[in-house]
Amino acid sequence: MDVDVQKAPGEGEVLIFTVAGAFSVKGSMREVADRLSTEEWATFELSESEDTVTIRSIHVVGIRGGAHRKRGHMGLTP
What we know:
By secondary structure, the chain is mainly β. The chain is built from one helix and five strands.
């Protein structure tokens, strides 16, 4: 599975960067960071499928959380 690391992850998704590549998983930044800090072999659900992936925490080099979709509108003022 190829992950586009240039694109920001969506809300409820986190990119996990390892020495072997990147994974897009479901969850919040806080949940993923907590699991990586407490479990040596953390298991996550991939965001693009129902598959699971197990990542060894010592191989993680970075994580990137998803952004909330901001809704905006443009109005006219006199």
